[in-house]
Specification:
About 35% of the residues lie in helices and about 30% in strands.
Length: about 190
Amino acid sequence: MPRWFNIDFIQPDLRYLPMKKYYFLLLVFLSLHCWQCGNNGYSFRGISIPADVTTYYVGQFKNNALNAPPTLAIETSEALKEKIRRESRLILNETTPDVEFQGTIVDFRVTAEAPQPGESSAINRLTIVTSVEYINNKDESNGFKKNFSFFFDFPSTTELASVQTQATEDILAQLTEDIFNAAFTNW
């Protein structure tokens, strides 16, 4: 039984009441502080989106890569839209967005890696490179234009067509993560 409660008289022990009041006030203060931090765009994930930024837009990516599948640009745009929708509080707005993403598929290539004795390689590498422009209409100094790239390794005995779907999904997952982090984290 807590010390502030006296069983003999079934009434609170007034000596310990002020301490209970301080604990209550501390709990209220910490709750308000956490709520305020959450409303200003702070989180434990490291996402730093200002409170006045509420909408986003991802334009249709262009495909300038020679050997890229025709649907790659659409898949990239949709993957980035979905990433932002799922992992931020921003709302898609095509007319007057606070932040915008425009992009181009720059390169889609397969290269031989890990050479073996003779003239063969053990691994092929699919690499996708995108150029992304991030425009922050609320604070233009936070915008950027960068290239992002990632790769997927597969055995040289395997045809690209048999792994292309999985490879593209894996690469796009990492590319969208990198683009999202570049735009919304201040590490």
